[in-house]
Amino acid sequence: MPDAPASRSLARRLRQIPEVGEVLDRASDLFVYESDALTLLHARPALVVLPTSAQAVRDIVAACNDASTAYVARGAGTGLSGGATPVEGCVLIELSRLNRILDIDALNATATVEPGLVNAELSEAVRPLGLRYAPDPSSQPACTIGGNIAENSGGPHTLKHGTTSPHVLALEVVLPDASSVWLGRPDGHAHGLDLRGLFVGSEGTIGIVTRAVLRLVPLPAAVCTLLASFRTLVGACEAVTAIIESRVVPAALELMDDRTIEALESSVYAAGYPRDARAVLLIELEGPRAGLSEERAGVERVLTTHGAIEIRAARDETERLALWRGRKAAFGAMGRLAPDLYVHDAVVPRTRLAEVVDRINRVAAENGIRIANILHAGDGNLHPNIPFDRRDAEELARVRRVGAEIMRICVEAGGVLSGEHGIGLEKRDLMGLLFSESDLAPMRWVHEVFDPADRCNPGKVIPAPRACAESSPAQRGLPDLP
Amino acid sequence: MTVAEARFESILGAQACRLGGDERIDGVPVSQVLRPESEEQVAACLAEADLAGVALIPSGGGSKLGWGNRSRAPRLVRLDLSGLREPLELEAAEGIVTAAAGVPVASLAERAAGSGQRTLLCALHENATVGGTIASDPPGLDLSPGWRLRNDLLGLRVAYPDGSLGGCGGRVVKNVTGFDLVRLHCGAFGTLGVITRATLRLRPLPEETRRLVRRVADAEAGLIVAAALQRLEPRSLLVAPVGDAAEVLWEFEGHAVDVTACAAEFEGEEVAAPRWQQLAREAADEPSMTPDGLRVRVMGRPSDTLRIWRLLSSSSGAAAPRLGLPLAGIVFADLAEDRLADLSARARKEGWLTVVERASPDQKRELDVFGSPPADFALMAALKRRFDPRGTLSPGRFVGGL
Q1: What is the mean pLDDT of residues B369-382?
Q2: Which of A316, A317, A326, A318 is closest to A267 using CA atoms?
């Protein structure tokens, strides 16, 4: 962490870099950058710098290296695992001004963009060409492509289209030594090790994306969106498994529990979801029109067999968007329940969803914690959401305890720590639940190769070796962890 | 018997070790062949080789042992992974399968089909195994930007030269926990570690598949027809010369009603099964289609396929391009050796990649089959040094002589 004179000297150098939009150093400006969307963790950067070109990013990294100062890249700050939480006294590199679409190749269905481009803006731009960018996190109207690449973000349509990585063909990145290099080929063909694939999801710890070549997919010929309500959560989970076993791959298969429905329907985002249901499934099918009718009939049969009490189909695009608005606004609607929201993210084997959700709810109840569940159920991806008030220290301690217990339950069930939010700071020290030291060692080898000085978003993702005395958060300038 | 050979015998038992005899890989003598039956034995062999300074080359069914550069090691020990047959666990309800590296792709495909499912493992190569296919990531007839093995690979167990066994990824269909080492190992030719088992996503078999063909005047006409066909989103799309003419072949799959509608919209004759198999063998170059020449694969964007074909036609002397995959931007061709430098240079100028899939051992002494190293090669070399500091695993075989 630089002292005040060093920080002022670094600020002067950063201001001299051409194509740096702004360098912020006032406490009131820095305050808003203290955390990403995981507000449980926060730390203050020494400086926030807003580059407007890739060259400026290189120059900023070089300046940080010369000053032996850590730096953290940030997009829109919508991440939920603390991946963009500053390291105390670091330089925060805010990439939102690198936000252009540089090229659209409709013939080959690709787009070249800068990292600060907002996700939804890309799909809007290519829609007239009959194309879209498939990864669609719930924060799609705000989150940026660079942040999506860093976290390998998902979204409801991951079930059919995958997370971000399959949609990234090549990346221009600034490495921790301040050099710039392309990883992968814009045509997507492999030539040597897949460093593009390695970089996606590395959470800004081995470099900073400055340009990305992305794969676009055709808009579907037809779409069918169904909302099915159930008397029990178990019934809804069993229907999910049965749909997948019927060899249908929906574009999306989302589940919301009664507490989520109640929060949503009591909010300004009310979407007409049935308030008397214990769970609803939002199912989207897409493909050629004729086959889609057959697929829909098959899915409706499965839903009925598994106890759906009502099945509603969107009759037009307006109704479809209304159903989706409800799903995507559900996180925001939970603002009614408490001032803070801890959005968890884990994946379990699909067939164990009902059992795992039940265990999570019981643990929460035992600790006096309310949980509202939203699931990308088709992928086995859970988001147990914990509304809480962080001003209540005792409640905060219980929230953290339950959060860690949720991860243990998921891993015990054969699951993993994250399906789409990443590890960041939030789960770094839980990696040992899933990985042995032998599993983690190759990740450390990768990190050593890319960032031997450990200045690029240090302390995220990979826990220090168990024997290492320098691993305590305070010693690494990091906020304390759950 | 050398000290190292004796140590390998003590790890595996004498019955799992044999001398290489006349066996050579790209002209490099194989001194010993080891056939471990567990991943712990694989890891122990790696540790021993690393300690003794012995170069190991992992193999599965051996169908792609001729791929890659000639190793710079004076002799090799071949680590035959075909004995790793367990587990083969198919979890149909979860939509995943976990298989040991030595499981034949054909066995896995048969098992998956039994539950109405399939994987994206390329099934063109006879004798191919799960581990070898993941390590070499060959293009199948159905390759396209959205249909890539690396995107359906969920988890791996890998043995490293330090004798450790590490897992990456998991056994669930969605996972962003930690660095994505799964993709790093896919297509890495076993140069960073040896894959011992893998978990893959299963996809439902389509309700119906139809393969159709249309005869056209020549390959260029075929590629123009192929471009028009792409709006119907075929699973596979091929162009192949037939004498002076050419054929466009395509495959629709999905719901029967959609397949029928697509087939009606773009008419062709049904493809006889032997013809499709012949093309699969052509793509796999199995057996070697023209033993004396080079087999190259030139790759660009899908829209580049016609121009790649033209370049190859003008560069390949008497031999013509053999097969085009317009969905992937790939053309396979046989090539006279003395044309390679010119072809590669011209392709590079266009941003295309030329890979030599087959060359004789003598030819390989003089060339890097992967062409000029890519821009990020320095990072690849640094990773190789960190994962395999003594160069134990297939030294020199991969891109840029890694």
Answers
A1: 97
A2: A326
- In B, which residues are within 8 Å of A421 by CB distance? 176
pLDDT for position A247:
87
- The DSSP bridge partners found for residue A94 are A74
In SS3 terms, chain B reads as CCHHHHHHHHHHCHHHEEECCCCEECCEEEEEEECCCCHHHHHHHHHHHHHHCCCEEEECCCCCCCCCCCCCCCCEEEEEHHHCCCCEEEECCCCEEEEECCCEHHHHHHHHHCCCEECCCCCCCCCCEHHHHHHHCCCCCCCECCECHHHHEEEEEEECCCCCEEEEECCCCCCCCCCCHHHHHCCCCCCCCEEEEEEEECEECCCEEEEEEEEECCHHHHHHHHHHHHHHCCCEEEEEEECCEEEEEEEEEECHHHHHHHHHHCCCEECCHHHHHHHHHHHHCCCCCCCCCEEEEEECCHHHHHHHHHHHHHHCCCCCEEEEECCCCEEEEEECHHHHHHHHHHHHHCCCEEEEEECCHHHHHCCCCCCCCCCCHHHHHHHHHHHCCCCCECCCCCHHHC
Q: Which residues, in sequence order, are bridge partners of residue B57?
A: B78
Partners of A379 on chain B (C-beta within 8 Å) are 172-174
pLDDT for position A279 = 97
Q: Are B95 and A431 an interchain contact pair (Cβ–Cβ within 8 Å)?
A: no
Distance (Å, whole) CA A237 – CA A240: 5
Quick one: tokens of B274? 């032997």
Q: What is the pLDDT of residue A468?
A: 46
Which residue(s) pair with A388 in the sheet? A340
Q: Is the ipTM, as predicted for this complex, more than 0.90? A: yes
* β-bridge pairing B76-80 and B153-159: unpaired
Residue with the larger pLDDT of the pair A480 and A443: A443
Residue of B nearest to A153 (CA): B176
Among candidates A374, A456, A433, which has minimal Cα distance to A69? A456
Closest chain A C-alpha to B254 CA, distance in angstroms: 8
DSSP 8-state code for residue A443: H
Count Cα atoms within 13 angstroms, Cβ side, for B54: 27
Q: Report d(CA A271, CA A281) in Å as an integer.
A: 14
- CA of B276 vs chain A CAs: smallest distance (Å): 24
- Give the helix ranges, DSSP H, for A67-156: 119-126, 145-151
